[in-house]
Amino acid sequence: MFRKALLFLLICSASVMLSAQLSKGIKGKVLDRDGNPATETVVTFVDQSNAQNRYEIKTDKEGVYLYAGLPYSSDGYAVSVKVKDLPEVSKVTKVKTLEMVELNFDMRTDLVMQQSTQEVANPAADAQDLLKMEDYAGALAKTEEALKLEDKTNEKAVLLIRATCFEKMSRKDEELETYLKFQELYPKSDNEKQIIGKIADLYADKGDKANAEKYKKLYKDMGGLVIAENYNEGVNRLNSGDAQGAAEFFRKAIADDANDADAHRELASALARTGDFGGAVEHLKIYLKMKPDADDAAQWKEAIKQLEPMVKGSKGK
Asked: FRET pair for 160, CA 20 to 30 Å: which of 43, 141, 169, 270?
């Protein structure tokens, strides 16, 4: 069993689109029930294609808000405002590449319109709200309702909410099943690389090496970076007695993640086995500097004391 499971550097789906362009953003004005500017009011933007992508900004003294550079979303954003003790009002709008979208809120009319709209059940919106409140069981129940509807407009967002709930509840088999279903239905989505990486990670957790390697290759072919792969190979080499090969992979692991203190520790172990006592001491000192309170700190401090005379001895030859 490795020290750490295979982790994937998953980049937020909205920022890895093929166009790699940001929308110019969304702006607007918020008025209260009396038609006055609603100042210091939080405006929330939630990506309809991935509910985990969430942004906030406050209105200024004129009730104006402007959020520039929102990542593009194929399904648009749910923009919500809550003025004092009034019910929250939400609207959905698309963002356009290099164009500013204007979306205003007027509580004198918007509340009436929303109340009439809410008379029609919207389990997808309910699931999203419950997810924000961390009621994962409730959100899952609403996603089941939403997926049974003939209208499949919100299916993409609902599947992602469902997968997120399973993740939060540590129900990995169902999370994997949901991501596989999403990939089957939407193979060229904006989230594709993220989804492929998730699937590979979940297969690895299950111990399904064949499928984990299959999806890991797809992920890497799409430009994804696999963290800990070099570290794990270094562990394999070290355990098999190939200290020189292990050292090479631990150096690569450090290049992958400069903050991987454990890679420095394992590199030190590999170097000591090759007779490079000076290198071993150097990397043990780096490890202890990065993790001074590590449970094994005393052990490695003692190892340094034992290695340092050997370093001086090798220099005197």
From this structure: 43
Closest Cα to residue 41, out of 97, 9, 82, 91? 82
Among 183, 207, 224, where does a domain finish? 224
Round to whole Å and give the CA distance between 92 and 84. 21
Q: Are residues 159 and 218 in the same domain?
A: yes
**Mean pLDDT in residue range 186-202:** 89
108 and 50 part of one domain: yes
Binning pLDDT at 50, 70 and 90, where does residue 110 land?
confident
H/E element holding 71? none
33 with 112, same domain? yes
For residue 58 the two structure tokens come to: 């406050």
Domain of residue 295, residue span:
229-316
Give pLDDT tens digits for 292-309: 998 899 999 999 999 988
Strand pairing report for 25-31 and 105-106 = parallel
- Asked if residue 220 and residue 128 are part of one domain, the reply reads yes
CB contact set of 14 (below 8 Å; sequence gap of 6+): 47, 49, 50, 53, 71, 72, 73, 190
- Return the CATH number at 299: 1.25.40.10
Q: Beta-carbon neighbour count of residue 38 at 10 Å?
A: 25
Per-state percent for the chain, helix, strand, coil, to nearest 5: 50, 15, 30
Write out pLDDT tens, residues 232-278. Answer: 888 989 999 999 999 999 998 898 788 889 999 999 999 999 999 99
- Average pLDDT over every residue of 137-161: 92
How many independent structural domains does the chain possess? 3
Average pLDDT, rounded, for the chain? 85
Residue 99 lies in a domain: yes
Q: Report helix, strand or coil for 37.
A: strand
Residue with tokens 């520790």: 265
Instruction: Please write the tens of the pLDDT for every residue from 86-100.
Output: 989 999 898 776 678
For residue 269, what pLDDT is reported? Answer: 93
The residue from 117, 144, 174 where one domain ends is 117
